[in-house]
């Protein structure tokens, strides 16, 4: 796929772009009925595959609209010359495999033949192997949806029944669990190794980013429930779940930060003291450097989740904060030592407003 960078400053809709691109979920959906009776009758008469035929027509129609071929990448608007389609095919054992169709700018019969061939290959032994574009798209969509849930809860929380909120949390948890399972897939891990670690300015090419986004939204909604004094049953529902999540997330964050920064500083100190006595092989050194980079990547991706937790703690009424502070105080100290400026800024407010009051008032 070829692409070109667009200068939105010269676009007639520049002002709208500036406004909506700043939104967490700058998207709109539209559903309309389309009468395909004639097309369906033709497919039945000619014995043409319904799914692949519709995929062919929709792809060609969408690609005729330049705006539908545009993406925001690295803060720039780019337009692709063609955006191919893909789909999943069920295998005999009930699992699924990806099928990437390629461009629909080919004759109909050629497209259908390719689709049928890919379906047969997938049934025989296809995998859920994904590529950079698919991972990037999935990550952006899932992250934006998670952010939208948080925004909607903030805006109209009182409009939701308790059952609706629980269903919302259950759905978010299912998405998080599926993402975590998918992240463990060997095909995905191989893809990540091939992509390498993100360069400065790049979006993290990993499902960690979207998983963190979903878990951040879960924590946000739980904090809203936890601080709803008018609904004790909602508070009770959120209490245990929220505290267990916070403890697990903070512990994990401290560990990866230690590897990313603390362990690295200790290694540098030892190296300067015993530079002449190096015994590690080059392979072992590369392994440690890889682990360090992996931890840095996870720590960076985790910042939105950790800042959400710290912000929620800061907003928690003093009496509730005192009740769980003993559990989290050692983690706070470790976070001060190893965290970056974003997390430290939130922690400093907690120490000033909450812990200072506990110690001196």
Chain-averaged pLDDT: 77
Order of helices and strands: EHHHEEEEHHHHHHHHH
Rg computed from alpha carbons, rounded to a whole number of angstroms: 25 Å
Q: Quote the distance from N terminus to C terminus.
A: 65 Å
Q: What is the number of helical segments per DSSP (H or I, 4+ residues)?
A: 12
Query: Helix content range of the residues, please?
Result: 55-70%
Strand content: 5-15%
* Order of strands across the main sheet: 1-3-2
Number of strands: 5
The main sheet comes to: 3 strands, antiparallel
Kindly report the oligomeric state of this protein.
single chain
Judging from the principal axes of the Cα atoms, what is the shape? elongated
Give unreliable regions as ranges. 191-206
Structure description:
The protein has 361 residues and is mostly helical. 68% of the residues lie in helices and 7% in strands. The chain has twelve helices and five strands. The protein has helices at residues 14-21, 37-46, 50-63, 108-125, 132-156, 162-183, 186-195, 207-226, 232-273, 282-315, 318-338, 341-360; strands at 3-6, 70-73, 76-80, 85-90, 96-102. The strands form two sheets. It has a three-stranded antiparallel sheet with strand order 1-3-2, with no helix packed on it. The protein is elongated and about 80 Å long. The N and C termini lie far apart (65 Å). The model is unreliable at 191-206 (pLDDT under 50).
């Amino acid at each position: 796929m070829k692409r070109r960078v667009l200068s939105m400053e010269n676009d007639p809709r520049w002002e709208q772009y500036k406004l909506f691109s700043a939104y967490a979920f700058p998207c709109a959906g539209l559903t309309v009925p389309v009468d395909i009776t004639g097309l369906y009758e033709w497919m039945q008469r000619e014995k043409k595959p319904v799914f692949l035929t519709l995929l062919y027509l929709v792809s060609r129609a969408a690609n005729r609209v330049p705006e539908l071929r545009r993406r925001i990448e690295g803060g720039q608007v780019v337009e692709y010359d063609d955006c191919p389609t893909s789909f999943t095919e069920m295998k005999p054992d009930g699992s699924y495999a990806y099928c990437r169709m390629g461009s629909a700018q080919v004759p109909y019969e050629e497209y259908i033949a390719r689709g049928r061939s890919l379906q047969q290959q997938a049934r025989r032994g296809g995998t859920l192997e994904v590529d950079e574009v698919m991972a990037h798209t999935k990550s952006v969509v899932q992250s934006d949806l998670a952010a939208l849930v948080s925004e909607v809860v903030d805006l109209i929380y009182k409009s939701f029944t308790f059952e609706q909120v629980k269903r919302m949390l259950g759905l978010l948890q299912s998405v998080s669990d599926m993402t975590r399972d998918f992240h463990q897939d060997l095909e995905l891990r191989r893809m990540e190794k091939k992509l390498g670690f993100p360069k400065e300015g790049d979006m993290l090419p990993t499902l960690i980013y979207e998983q963190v986004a979903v878990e951040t939204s879960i924590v946000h909604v739980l904090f809203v429930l936890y601080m709803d004094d008018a609904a004790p049953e909602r508070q009770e529902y959120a209490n245990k779940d929220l505290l267990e999540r916070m403890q697990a997330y903070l512990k994990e964050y401290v560990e990866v930060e230690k590897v990313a920064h603390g362990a690295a500083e200790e290694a540098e100190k030892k190296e300067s003291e015993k530079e002449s006595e190096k015994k590690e092989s080059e392979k072992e050194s590369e392994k440690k450097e890889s682990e360090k980079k992996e931890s840095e990547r996870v720590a960076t991706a985790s910042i939105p989740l950790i800042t959400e937790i710290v912000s929620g703690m800061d907003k928690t009424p003093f009496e509730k904060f005192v009740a769980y502070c003993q559990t989290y105080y050692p983690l706070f100290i470790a976070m001060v030592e190893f965290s970056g400026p974003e997390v430290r800024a939130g922690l400093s407010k907690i120490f000033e407003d909450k812990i200072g009051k506990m110690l001196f008032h």
